[in-house]
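STRUCTURE:
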């Protein structure tokens, strides 16, 4: 934990402190930002980083060592009355603090502190604001090693996509049956060989199943893939080592050499929306103009809405990417939530607009990494539907 940097950032933002709180590991952000990993968390603890001065700890006597290693003076409690008095003491003189809280739960990924605890802090005369911007600064920005792991994983993830399409091609040409699950397992073999792990997936979805944004093939429910089928592959993974971050892409293909116009037309709209969002981010970064997650979503969504498919774009345009595939930086979202966090150097997110019809769905997903005065797509960009038998 870089205490000096956190405190200077608090002062720059007009905050008196950042109050961390947890019970039963409900707030993983706290542990990652503070860089602690206590063995047991069955009692409530608080840790205040003030804008000036030494931090303060409020810990239960049963688990008095939970915040060991962190700087600051400690107050111990056993009863709830002692806890309230201790909290009042460490917050003495503080008027405006940040917590993992989101007004109206607009950014639920950060809204991790329960309402009762927020009420308790407010009852002490303290204004609570969202830590969302702070979390992005201290939890979502990548190191050079993280970026290198992302690019390394990307090579394996793209190889898995190519292997998935190749498995379909070879099976159809030879007259062998192949299912979505079979394709998934082929992509997993590429992951294993390349040292990549994933929390679940990948996804291989054919025809109607591709119209379900969160479809996942299982051995029992997997559909077969054959000639003239439309296929979507959604593939994400990271290198199998500490600190590695995810790479997450979606590609589409058609089991044939000539792709029907209905598929091409929808893909072209999705592609236009994707590229408009990419261009918007790149232009803003190169001109040093501040933009926010919700604005990028608006750009992509306007393209699809203009083309008459607004109701068929049923999810946000993109999500933050980190050590978890859905991480805690700005999401590209003015649909499911209104993400007002700025797009800042060091973060990565997906751009993945989609159109989902009854018989098939098209999504095209890339990852964007933001640098000091630029932003780039970190992998290959799909220019056309893959002709799997082409």
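SEQUENCE:
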């Amino acid at each position: 934990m870089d205490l000096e940097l956190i405190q200077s950032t608090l002062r720059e933002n007009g905050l008196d402190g950042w109050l961390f709180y947890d019970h039963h590991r409900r707030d993983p952000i706290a542990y990652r930002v503070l860089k602690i990993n206590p063995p047991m968390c069955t009692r409530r603890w608080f840790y205040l980083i003030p804008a000036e001065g030494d931090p303060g700890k409020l810990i239960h006597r049963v688990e008095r060592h939970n915040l060991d290693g962190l700087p600051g003076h400690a107050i111990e409690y056993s009863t709830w009355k002692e806890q309230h008095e201790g909290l009042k003491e460490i917050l003495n003189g503080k008027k405006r603090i940040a917590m993992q809280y989101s007004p109206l739960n607009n950014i639920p990924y950060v809204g991790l502190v329960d309402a009762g605890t927020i009420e308790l802090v407010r009852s002490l005369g303290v204004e609570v604001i969202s830590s969302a911007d702070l979390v992005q600064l201290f939890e979502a920005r990548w190191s050079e090693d993280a970026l290198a792991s992302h690019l390394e994983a990307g090579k394996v993830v793209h190889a898995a996509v190519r292997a998935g399409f190749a498995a379909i091609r070879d099976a159809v040409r030879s007259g062998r049956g192949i299912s979505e699950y079979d394709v998934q397992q082929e992509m997993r073999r590429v992951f294993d060989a390349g040292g990549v792990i994933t929390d679940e997936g990948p996804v291989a979805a054919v025809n109607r199943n591709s119209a379900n944004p969160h479809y996942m093939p299982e051995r029992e429910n997997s559909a077969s893939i054959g000639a003239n089928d439309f296929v979507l592959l959604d593939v994400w993974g990271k290198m199998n080592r500490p600190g590695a971050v995810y790479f997450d892409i979606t590609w589409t293909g058609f089991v044939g050499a000539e792709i029907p116009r209905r598929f091409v037309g929808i893909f072209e709209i999705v592609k236009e929306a994707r590229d408009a969002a990419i261009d918007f981010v790149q232009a803003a970064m190169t001109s040093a103009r501040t933009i926010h997650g919700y604005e990028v979503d608006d750009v992509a969504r306007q393209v699809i809405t203009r083309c008459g498919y607004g109701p068929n774009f049923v999810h946000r345009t993109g999500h933050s990417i980190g050590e978890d595939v859905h991480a805690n930086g700005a999401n590209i979202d003015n649909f499911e939530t209104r993400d007002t966090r700025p797009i800042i150097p060091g973060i990565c997110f997906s751009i993945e607009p989609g159109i989902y019809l009854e018989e098939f769905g098209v999504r095209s997903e890339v990852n964007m990494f933001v640098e000091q005065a630029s932003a780039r797509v970190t992998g290959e960009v799909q220019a056309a539907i893959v002709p799997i038998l082409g």
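REMARK: The first strand starts at residue 17 and ends at 22.
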